[in-house]
Amino acid sequence: MAPRDPGKRPSRSVMVLLLLACLTVLTLDARGGTSSPVEPFRTAVGNVVGPVESGTAVAVRPFRELAGYFGSNDKLRQQVATLSAENSRLRSQVETRPLDRNRLAELDGLTRTARQTGYALVAARVVAMGPSQSFSRTVTIDAGSSSGIRPDMTVLNNDGLVGRVVRTTTTTATVLLIVDQDSVVGGRLGSNMQLGFLRGQGSTGRADQLDLDLMDSSTTPARGDVVVTWGSANGAPYVAGIPIGKVVSVWSTPRETAKHAVIAPFVDFSSLDVVGVVVPRGTHGDRQLIAAGGR
């Protein structure tokens, strides 16, 4: 007898016998219910396979939970990043709020100055401070010729006179401060309207001072007297009536009959921020003017 070919399919009769056996088992199981002849076999299989399934589930659970952990960890990181960004934004708002309040107060002060003096102003911010050309005390503001600003215009803030424009570009202007040693401003005493010239001492800070020499040598300034600008022809470089400072001391030398006064300016030049440039009415530029009714 020839050996059976391993790759040969089972005979049709074998297939029929297997099919009949399956049908018989299904029929007996269905009719028997819980008393099915195959119930003991099923129970035995369950007793063997059940613990294996439970053990497999326990063994696989850490890996399944690990995948969920990484997914949750990514979401938590995204939430932490979002909250950190929001916290930084809120902290920035809190930290800059005092600066915004100060600038708003200075703009309000410029508006009051324009209303009281009747001058039209272009508001600008100080963006740099340092020497320019031969001058030692200057600042740069962020408004220039495109805003209608040109040299020999008066610069002030809500405290008083700051200086005058000495140079402009399209978007910036250089301002010579009145405390510069080369600065000369015509001043007037508020008490008796006497005229004189104020010269800077070249320093900036809370100890800034100006020297006042009166034209009338017989006049003695009074301590605490306020000095304002007397004005120039056509308002250049200084318009009239802008507060400069007050007299803090008076002195003279034995050889001199005239009295010299030391003036403490109203402006704190070490903390300049928002200033206004006096421009002619009807000036058109890329900056909005702060204007008020005529004097």
The span between the termini is: 135 Å
Oligomeric state of the chains present here: single chain
Rg estimate, integer Å: 46 Å
Spans of 5+ residues with little confidence (pLDDT < 50)?
none
Strand content: 25-35%
Silhouette: rod-shaped
Characterization of this structure:
The protein has 2 helices and 13 strands; from the N terminus they run ααβββββββββββββ. It is α+β, with helices and mostly antiparallel strands and 295 residues long. The protein has a 6-stranded antiparallel β-barrel. A 6-stranded antiparallel barrel has the order 6-7-8-11-10-9. Strand 1 and strand 2 form a beta hairpin. The radius of gyration is 46 Å and the shape is rod-shaped. The termini are far apart. The mean pLDDT is 78.
